[in-house]
Amino acid sequence: MSDVIAPREEFAAAALTRADDYARLYQESTQDPDAFWGRVAGRLDWNRAPTRIKDVSYDLADFHIRWYADGELNAAVNCVDRHLATRGDKVALIWEPDDPKQQARRITYRELHAEVCRLANALENLGVVKGDRVTLYLPMIPEAAYAMLACARIGAIHSVVFGGFSPDSIAGRIADCGSKLVITADEGLRGGKPIALKKNVDEALKKPGTQSVETVLVVRRTGATVDMQMPRDRWYDAVVEGQPATHQAQPMNAEDPLFILYTSGSTGKPKGVLHTTGGYLVYASYTHEQVFDLKDDDVYWCTADVGWVTGHSYLVYGPLANGATSLMFEGVPNYPDVSRFWEVIDKHQVTLFYTAPTAIRALMREGEAPVKKASRASLRVLGSVGEPINPEAWRWYYDVVGDGRCPVVDTWWQTETGGILITPLPGATDLKPGSATLPFFGIQPALVDANGQELEGAAEGNLVIKDSWPGQMRTVYGDDQRFIDTYFKTYPGRYFTGDGCRRDADGYYWITGRVDDVINVSGHRIGTAEVESALVAHPKVAEAAVVGFPHDIKGQGIYAYVTLNAGEQPDDDLRKELVAWVRKEIGPIASPDHLQWAPGLPKTRSGKIMRRILRKIAENQPDQLGDTSTLADPSVVQALLDERKVK
Ligand code: WTA
Fold first, then answer.
1. Res 622: pLDDT
2. Coil, strand or helix: which one is 241?
3. 3-state secondary structure of 533
């Protein structure tokens, strides 16, 4: 039996939502979504309040997803301007630099307003108009938030590309959405090491398909010398200087796009997940408030990078729409040492802390002493996101980091969902270590078997969501059909998450991980197909197959099987060269942890690679290979097992 941790009475008494509220509101939200989400929409400021609330059909013959379709609002106004009257001097962003000896910054809502308006004016002067795409390739600096909000303010669609991606990956994302402008920095700084962001953009813009880019704005972060190609490249500080600190925001329809964010799927190129303005912002702000039990004096810290969806919904849009104080951390958990997280918590008196299981597991390995050096007395709620959290890491987070005092909210969601779908509410939900617990308001999860048959009661199957919620993605940018094919064809009439899941006898959900060809490495999604196509692009590689395997810290690691062209010699130098090649093609997060030479790959007679077998070999479970008799050449399996032993 797993243990159950009920909310402390003292916490529950002061919480925004308690157990009986949850039951009542959940019922209303699913029975009368129009009434429920109509009311919740009132938390935002609308230029024109929506009268149409939910307008959705998952029926393939009449497929559409619209929320608040006649409403008008501006996301930046909601995140900034509307707080000025009551919270102008409240700190909106705390910026903690990579180097703790450098000065942290505290940016008030009034200052944020001026920064966003100046940049919005500058972008308009550079010819950026409503509907244009703008690519952001930035480190974790306040300008990243200014840039997102300035785009939202003028109605431009931002596409943030994580600063760890390679020039090729940047180029692909620019080409896919046809960006007009790129905002980057001279360099990023992480763990004391510079990252050549501007240089990567320069290389990306030499690649085909990127000629849509007219202007590159460069933020000075480290002051490094970079190549400025006039008139294309402009210094950020020079273009915003002298711009008015006020700006008339563009009114947007609720269904106008807010941003594109590329994410990996099981096939092909990364998909441009498109989120729109009204539903996304309602959902991000409401979940942020409810899941973290947000109060006006909280100091909230989400450690995710702005390059991922968590950085969009729960570092920038959700917290700022709620008028909260949001901490942005430029650095890494182990620099200058492994106490950094806990020291930052004390330094800024953080009350709500949101991080990833991979960070928790890495820090757990360092023992309790680095945690105990800091008081952490300010903490109230701890959050987890990005991958399943194993019960052992959950307990350590709860017992050691939170001193057994702070509820842990294990939040399950996806880039596609815009916000959290399955999660405890800290004053309402009994916790079970390792379970994301229960659905958020309005969310109707179900488990289905391979035939799409819905499973009742305690069961394990594929996780689908039966009806829409306001934060749901609307399409794959430029490819509506791919959106429908990817998410609504497998189990018609339902949104397919790509995750496997178990439901226990109490109705609690336990996410078991991806059931498609996506690997979750340290909470980052990597498509096996992307790594494979990077490998086969190398002149010496004939074929490659990539699978995930369990990894103590990262959750999953990347295991690559490579067949070389005839005449090529497999050796350690080539192994290193191929790993470096993948880093260069995609980025460091996609580096294979293991690369095994494969004289042949296990294929069916029709030529399909049997990944199930490759997974078992990678997991070192040769006794669980199952039936190999359908293989075109069963002897390749033994050859792979022998090669694995040699390594
Ligand atoms: C996984 C990140 C278990 C899951 C917000 C999902 C989780 C993928 C959890 C989405 C969790 C995220 N427990 N698994 N609490 N949160 N995942 O798009 O496999 O980067 O499908 O969004 O991460 O990753 P994405």
1. 87
2. coil
3. helix
pTM of the shown model? 0.96
For the record, the structure tokens of 183 come out as: 């905002």
ipTM for the whole complex: 1.00
- Ligand 1, atom 5, lies closest to the CA of 414
Q: Which atom of ligand 1 is nearest to the CA of 411?
A: 15
Two tokens at 573?
A: 């130098």
Residues whose beta carbon lies within 6 Å of some atom of ligand 1: 263, 308-310, 385-388, 410-415, 436, 497-499, 511, 513-514, 520, 525
Tokens for 396, please give them: 């350590």
Task: Please indicate if the annotation marks 191 as binding a ligand.
Answer: yes
Q: Whose CA is nearest to atom 12 of ligand 1?
A: 386
CA of 117 to the centre of ligand 1 (A): 34
C-alpha span between 60 and 492 (Å, rounded):
8
pLDDT digits (tens, 9 = 90+) for 274-306: 999 999 999 999 999 999 999 999 999 999 999
Q: How far apart are CA 89 and CA 93, in angstroms?
A: 11
Packed helices 572-585 and 167-177: angle between N→C axes, nearest 10 degrees? 30
Are 474 and 60 within 8 A, CB to CB?
no
Of the candidates 476, 418, 437, 422, the one whose C-alpha atom is nearest the C-alpha of residue 283 is 418
539 is in an annotated binding site: no
Q: Residue 639 phi/psi, 5° resolution?
A: -60, -40
Amino acid in position 127: G
- The DSSP line for 390-451 is PHHHHHHIIIIISTTTS-EEEEB--GGGSS--B---TTT--B-TT--BSBPTT--EEEE-TT
Q: What DSSP line would sit under 292-333, residue for residue?
A: HT--TT-EEEE---TTSHHHIIIIIIHHHHTT-EEEEE-S-T
Alpha-carbon distance of 125 to 118, in angstroms, equals 11
16 CA to middle of ligand 1, Å?
26
Q: Give strand pairing partners of 189.
A: 194
Calculate ∠ Cα 567-571-573, nearest 5°: 115
User: Is residue 511 classed as helix, strand or coil in its secondary structure?
Assistant: strand
Q: Is the Cβ–Cβ distance between 56 and 444 less than 8 Å?
A: no
Token pair in block for residue 424: 């405890």
Query: Nearest C-alpha to atom 7 of ligand 1 is from which residue?
Result: 387
* For the chain, counts of helices (H) and of strands (E): 22, 31
Give the model confidence (pLDDT) of 517-537 as tens digits.
999 999 999 999 999 999 999
Angle at CA 514, nearest 5°, toward 510 and 518? Answer: 160
Q: Which two structure tokens, joined as six digits, stand for 646?
A: 């040699």
244 C-beta neighbours (distance < 10 Å), count: 10
Measure 415 CA to ligand 1 centroid, in angstroms: 8
- Token pair listed for 162: 């994580």
Q: Hey, CA dihedral for 221, 225, 229, 235, is it positive or negative?
A: positive
Q: Residue 608's pLDDT is what?
A: 85
Give pLDDT < 50 ranges for the chain: 1
Residue 360's contacts (CB-CB under 8 Å, 6 or more residues apart) are 384, 389, 393, 396, 397, 401
Residue from 266, 358, 520, 556 to probe ligand 1 pocket by mutation (most atoms less than 8 Å from CB): 520
What distance in Å separates the CA atoms of residue 310 and residue 317, rounded to the nearest whole number? 10
